[in-house]
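Exercise 7. Predict the joint structure of the components listed below.
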Amino acid sequence: MIADDAPQSTTHMTSTGDGSAHELLQRLIELQQTYHHIPWTEIERLSRQLSLSQSHIVGVIEFYSFLHTTHQGEYEIFISDNITDQMQGSRLLAELLAKGLGIEIGTTRADKRVSLNYTSCIGMGDQGPAALINGYTLTALTTERINQIIQRVDASTPLDQWPRSLFEVSSKTRRKDIILNSEYIPGAAIAAGLKNGPTSLLNQLEQSGLRGCGGAGFSTASKWRFCAAADAEKRFVVCNADEGEPGTFKDRYLLQAHTDRLIEGMTLCAAVIGSSTGFIYLRGEYRYLLQPLNEILEQRRKAGLLGQSILGQANFNFDIKIHLGAGAYICGEESALIESLEGKRGIPRSRPPFPVTQGYCGFPTVVNNVETFCNAAMIAQRGPEWFRQVGTPASPGTKLLSISGDCERPGIYEFPFGTSIRDILHACGAQQTLAVQIGGAAGRMIPATEFNRTIAFEDISTGGSFMIFNQNRELLRAIENFTHFFRHESCGFCTPCRVGSSLLAKQLSKVMVGHATAKDLDEMSILGSLMQKTSHCGLGQTAANPILDGLGKFPSLFQSRLRATSFEPAFDLDASLEEARLLTGRDDPDAHLEGGGV
Amino acid sequence: MTNSFEIDGITVPFSNGQTIMDAALTAGIYIPHLCHNPEFKPHGSCRLCTVLINGRSVAACTTPAGEGIVVENETHELVTQRRLLLKLLFVEGNHTCPGCEKSGACQLQAVAYHCGMLAPEFVHFYPKRSIDASHPDTIIDFNRCILCELCVRASRDSDKKAVFNISGRGIQAHLTIDSPSGKLADSAFNSSDKAARVCPVGAILPKHKGYNIPIGQRLYDQAPISQVGDVAKHQEVADE
Amino acid sequence: MSSPIKVATASLAGCFGCHMSLLDIDERLIDLVGHIQFDRSPLTDIKKVGPCDLGLIEGGVCNAENVEILKAFRRQCKILVAVGACAINGGVPAMRNQYSLAECLEEAYLHGTGIDNPQIPNDPELPLLLNQVHPIHEVVWIDYFLPGCPPSADTIFTFLDELLSGRPIQFAYQQIHYD
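Solution:
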């Protein structure tokens, strides 16, 4: 399907290879790797092979940040632009890189050697500033490392000859609790599950009180049970490894260090619901994990833990395919993820029907987070009482947190549910903390007065992102970063999110440059509330959280930047005359105006 | 004994499988909408039909009716919300009503009149968009597209052509035409297609008959959309 | 009403159609005249706007002079109203926002057909153009919006009548249209 001289990127095939339209996204990702854009001839070829219209294919390409119809560089570089990267100096390094490469950020160099862009958080908050180069992760960037990158790009050194140290991802587990302290015996959970039967396993899960670890907290037992009960010929197990929430990276760690637990959890789920096919939807930013994951899948097949007749049970067949994402936060929403698995634009579906009754290809599908599957595997091994020994009655067990920002020891922390923010801050060595953003950009900004609150579904629910800001930080920068993130990641399907996220960003810029008035703050509140109430999916419903929390809990951040006037123009009046001044050569007093926003 | 639920205190019967919107339309209760057309699969993108069920916001067009549910529709809060959504749609595109042939029979206008919108008020985007006049019988003015995807659905589901698609993401999302040049004339589109008759605004218009109905006699000149109904319904009739 | 209310009007980037519509109030104008005194307006010869109860603005904001007039109106008028499509969303003049200012001026003064002595005018007497046409609410706070191209005489009369009598302003369905 691609040229014979295609480079190494084809080694780890991800696509189903069945010539169906569902392959589209995976095929496009490979083409982008090969050609650094999707050539028109390939669009035509895909259109014929997959029986899809060309405009449909372009529609998919233009949806995903890592796919392009225009030529990108042989080295495609994306600098992670999360606030935590910025706090570690990413913007300066990006400028340094741009200067060194002789390129503007957001462009491709004329010789097509290199392109440079910012991208949303790539899940390296504990070892930023970070970047992607042709899909592979560069960590802990420094001036020195930036110079190394520039030299190798200039010398056209193939990526596999770059020093491995540039690509090293080290996950530091700073605190372990019952889950991470437990030894895991490969196959034990499946054996237990098969021995006791699906009903018993579901009962165990139910007694454990395990809830979805992506943040929503739906009962895992109920989800599996609903799916098993739905009338259908086939069912699917999907692992949501699209860890896109800014500031979170605990799934990265689990995928890397506890792959077997994850696969075992998925296999158990397959046994319970009666599924023969599972998918891991791996975010494109974690492409470096694709090969190791595939290797472990292969090992498990050889060990009889995956594939045909698992653990010798003749009628238990289950295998897993890995699908890559291509830079779209929205695909972490389970129904958008399913659309993306089907090779389409990641637009969230209307619910009902829920995926448990109509998911992948219309079949009942369980979609769970990486951590949920891992926990399910451990519960099957150790039993529900073991799991319930920590946590709270409504939130049993533990939660993995990805801690980043202003603290001495960023990394992975496992805490029992019910742990207070104060205790967490103490554990990671955070001092003079001004605020914590819990749950990522879509989460909540918690001021010091609320540090006695706890991580729990009944209090502050989170997928695990925990970003710390100390008193030297300008919180409005974080709010701005998150607001721009949502504008960039809105899928564009529904009115309030598509338009509202842009208007909010515009209004906030007016605040940032000191041209806003109280009326502008009112307008932001009104827009935010509208987005919360009327958006189609969770993205739009939470996209205004940073601004609404800021206005509610840190009003002085905004107030201190307001004009005393009752109204200021929406745009910079004098700047809007600049073009005319240039065209006419005028600079007299009447060629200027005062006042205005951005 | 039929099932029923309540909209603003009025009892509305429904049959299994009906959405709140279906049941309301059958009962003659108007819930504002733009992306909904009963002939096509509900879409839920414009969010104009957002109603409250027991205090929870849902889109009436995609939410199943349920026995005994209590739906709020024309409350002050919801009408205010709808006005805001309409304002967002107006500032997002280039809606120069005085220069649009669809004016007077435009559903975006009509819903905005119904909801009492006097002005869009937010900052205007003035996006740079084009016009496709390549086709002999039909013109596409992308300035007016509100991304309701009715043409996408009609072309795909009724005409079996998939002439229209959506590309881009977020505020960059836009309507595209499936043809080698991207132009309508080079596509499989025909002016007798269903897709030619479903646009609620002036984005897809027949050529050669602009402004053919005098002001004062146009679809929504004298009576509100809650009485007159959707423009697509009337376009069907006009074409027969 | 005891003393007449003072009204000022201006046409910015508009076509005076909204002013025509105001005059179209016809004989009802006579009823209004007793209650209204015009300050700066194309209908009077007053050059500078003084303190007023009501300002009616037709047209969008396309140049530096429009901005100054609008700001002066805002300073002087207790209630400022955007009258008509152009004031509300830029209207037809804002269709130039599809092009850069350079493209517009070059087409009009340099490359267009039938141009003698091609040059872009730069006399300081001329107001400089903004790079885009804007609705007036993006420049000053607006208290009320009267849509239409133009708003019908009936709509304008209803507005003035209800404002003068202190009633809440309410329109019949047919009185509100955007074209």
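Discussion. Residues 233 and 401 of chain A are 38 Å apart (CA to CA).
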